[in-house]
UniProtKB/TrEMBL annotation:
Keywords: Hydrolase. One of its GO terms (molecular function) is phosphatase activity. Gene3D superfamilies: 3.30.1240.10, HAD superfamily/HAD-like. GO terms for cellular component: cytosol. This is Cof-type HAD-IIB family hydrolase. Pfam families: Hydrolase_3.
Length: 263
């Protein structure tokens, strides 16, 4: 078949949230796809500093990170965009004023509140990142860093409406469900990341295969002609999914590749 480019979300797609590993079946399938001359890219909401070692063990052709704000191909950085420093400080101060739980995600590190927050999911993420040496150097309150995006948690004590209005014309909030939002730079998304790579290879969306499971995969599902939803996925993807494969733990990556004749 003609050369294709495959784009993979991480969590719940190539990396199991149950076993915390990339299944051997997925590794073998991706190696076979590469041997056929196709290209494979990670396309994730995570920033580059937090790509798990379990994922890096497979030599992807590149990493598209931070919802399209940091793009690499092999060892070359193709594009990067951080929030302007003063604007970033103002966003963090507004988030505190609105009583949100906040993680700032940058290229070099992720940044957490200096105090223990009331948001259990934020604290769970803090523990996960800390176990990997991330998010322990300096706190949000230091204001001495730049970052690419925010992940925020809200509850009944939060004024998220005021914070969303404050985002203005340069930022937008993606609803991740469960009272959590990804706050990203407007004009960037997993779809713009796909498009950038496809145009780099002078290929159109008919040669793009995207694999995902969550709401922040919606943009690339809308972009690509071949959108593959994992066996467990957010229902927001259903109108755009061309094929629903098995879960990652049940060899879903390999199953989808066989379905499309990629291997």
């Amino acid at each position: 078949m003609e050369r294709a480019i495959l784009f993979f979300d991480i969590d719940g797609t190539v990396l199991s949230e149950v076993t915390k590993e990339v299944p051997q079946s997925a590794i073998e399938a991706m190696e076979k796809v590469r041997a056929e001359g196709h290209l494979l890219f990670i396309n994730t909401g995570r920033t580059i500093c937090s790509i798990p070692t379990e994922v890096r063990k497979f030599q992807f052709d590149g990493y598209l990170c931070g919802c399209g704000t940091y793009l690499t191909e092999h060892d070359e950085v193709l594009l990067k965009s951080s929030i302007e420093k003063q604007r970033g400080i103002e966003l963090l101060r507004k988030a505190k004023e609105c009583n949100l739980g906040v993680i700032a995600e940058g290229q070099e590190d992720c940044y957490f509140p200096g105090h223990i927050s009331r948001f259990d999911r934020l604290e769970s993420t803090r523990r996960y990142f800390a176990s990997r040496g991330i998010g322990i150097e300096q706190s949000l309150e230091s204001e001495r860093f730049e970052y690419d995006k925010l992940f925020v948690y809200v509850d009944d004590k939060s004024d998220f409406d005021s914070f969303r209005e404050y985002l203005g014309d340069d930022m937008e909030a993606l609803d991740r469900g469960g009272k959590a939002y990804e706050v990203i730079q407007k004009g960037f998304s997993k779809a713009t990341a796909c498009q950038f790579i496809m145009e780099r290879y002078d290929m159109d969306a008919s040669h793009a295969y995207v694999f995902g499971d969550s709401s922040n995969d919606l943009a690339m599902f809308e972009y690509a002609e071949h959108a593959i939803a994992m066996g467990r996925h957010d229902s927001v993807l259903d109108p755009y999914a061309e094929f629903v494969t098995k879960t990652v733990e049940n060899d879903g990556i390999a199953y989808a590749m066989k379905h499309y004749g990629l291997i």
